[in-house]
UniProtKB/TrEMBL annotation:
This is Aconitate hydratase. Gene3D superfamilies: Aconitase, domain 3 (3.30.499.10), Aconitase, domain 4 (3.20.19.10). It holds the Pfam family Aconitase_C. It comes from the Bacteria. Residues 16-412 form the Aconitase/3-isopropylmalate dehydratase large subunit alpha/beta/alpha domain. Keywords: Iron, Iron-sulfur, Lyase, Metal-binding. Its EC number is 4.2.1.3. InterPro entries: Acnase/IPM_dHydase_lsu_aba_1/3, Acoase/IPM_deHydtase_lsu_aba, Aconitase/3IPM_dehydase_swvl, Aconitase/IPM_isomerase, Aconitase_4Fe-4S_dom, AconitaseA/IPMdHydase_ssu_swvl. Residues 533-584 form the Aconitase A/isopropylmalate dehydratase small subunit swivel domain. The lineage of its organism: Bacteria, Pseudomonadati, Pseudomonadota, Gammaproteobacteria, Oceanospirillales.
Amino acid sequence: MTAPSTPLNLAQQLIRDHLVDGEMTPGSEIALRIDQALLQDVLGTLVMLELEAMGLDRVKTQPSVQYIDHGLVQADNLNAETYLFLKSACERFGVWYSGPGNGISHPVHMEHFGIPGQSIVGCDSHTTAAGSLGMLAIGAGGIEVAMAMAGEPLYLTMPEIWGIRLEGSLPDWVSAKDAVLELLRRHGVAGGKNTIIEYYGPGLANLSAMDRHVLANMGTEMGATATVFPCDEETRRFLASRGREADWKPLAAESGCSYDREEVLDLSSLEPLIALPSSPDKVVPVREVVGEPLHQAYIGSSGNPGYRDFAVVAEMVRGRTVADGVSLDINPSSRQVLATLIRDDYLADLVASGARLHQTGCNGCIGMGQAPAVGRNSLRTVPRNFPGRSGTREDSVFLCSPETATASALAGTIADPRSLDMPYPRIAEPAQMVVNRDVFVAPLPLAEARLKPLQKTDNTPALPELAALPDTLEVPVLLVTGDNISTDDIMPAGQRVMPYWSSVYASAPFTFEAVDADYARRAENTRTLGGHAIVGGHNYGQGSSRENAALVPRYLGLQAVLAKSFARIHWQNLICFGALPLSFIDAQDYDRLEQGDSLVIHDLHAQLAAGAELTAEVVGKGAFRLHHGLTPRQRELLACGGVINHIRRAKGASAGAADAS
């Protein structure tokens, strides 16, 4: 008689159903089959160039969708030309195209393409938002997304499953943003590294699908690999309101399952919370900062993209006027949400109050418009408030709920929404949203697609050739950074820089400019002389999945990063482009290194193959031990100089074998 299998939680079920290789043991490497792919424009350009470099004929992930949602400010010709390039690439490779104005990739994908039980990988760290529909949704560097689109599995470290039991219901003037801010207050920006957060429990019944989107979206801010929600009646209602009930199916943890980590979040115990500048985990009760001056209140982004997130603002401002000197910026998340707000007469209330209405897209969340004045407080419902991400380098951005942002805009200073003299407007999504699927351009048939050339420009050049790491690495330490260096610090966002992201060469001069304005010049000088190394603190590379934060420094000669610890996606991106991420075994060795030191690693590849640790030397300061934790597959990528070289080598070997036969 066969013994009964161990009950699985939902995350384990999803991994099991997509597992191609490896064991579901936390810490070991696994390979997952990927069903869908999501691209946004400023990183999708690099993905399309990578598909071209791989010689791909047709993507295997279906659907794959390219969204234009970041580079919407057409201050010159560059963004408009990017649209043309991406549309031509979609036609060439068999990808759906969502043009400018359709909205932010994450809520739009959830509305139109998300399917419970499927897997998705996206070149945006907030791809995790699709977990709100019961998907296995993971953000990754673009090169890994390109690999998945080519039919290769996605490799990652098997995460621990972190079960969070939800109890109770949200009090008046408290919403889903406050719930995820509470978790960030408890655990910080790295507290969820190498975990999948799975929500369960009776409190789920009190959270809509878009409330769950808020939690799944910002699980990324804790460093989580993914966030998973069950697929239940709330999910059915969401899909039915968009004419997609046929895509619904029930998904839940099996009775008697367990979790690697467990926690309880009592929704009824929460109060309005706010993250202070300039990190999502600097969370305090709003009541502690009441009365602080206010310059801007910004509603929208993938951090609060639901219909209710805008409708509740309209209810709050009806018959009232935004305080003098405050800009209330309304950033609708999707064409579908905007059309429904218009149908339901909410837009007029927003406009009449003095609010400013912006186009549907990421916009101010990524520094593409709505940048605040220097040093003036800006309350935003966006997921991140890293320094300078708003588009203003010396910014002062707080993260909060739509309720808190709106109450503050009306008061003229930071305000607790519970202080308003009105009943709390509890908003339910309509039973039927406005739906128009004709705004998407479907993939062309393969025979027609093969005839489509890419509409490339000077700003979409071919990717640079990257050499493999030498067997003796002898490089200067070019930069020493502190803790929590973000990918925004490495490769800035905003209107000034993002239009150049499609070109490694044009974006190179901006690298690390907010940390060390002279880095790019010094790095360029080392590029042909053996390269350089960077030293970092804890959680190096946190935040956005942007792969150019690894690729561009690599082009500038980066050979190795030595850090106390790495953020998951950036660690993988470095390996994919042939740069070596190493962690200090003794964190005090970080203090021994200075800019200008000479780092030497002898017999590099033999040391990598011999075990998880290696010995390095700093000239004049002696030897120390470093941890790499690379799998044989990752060591092979480094030996090739990165993923693209690896694929070319494999294709060449296959062609040679075919010729020989």
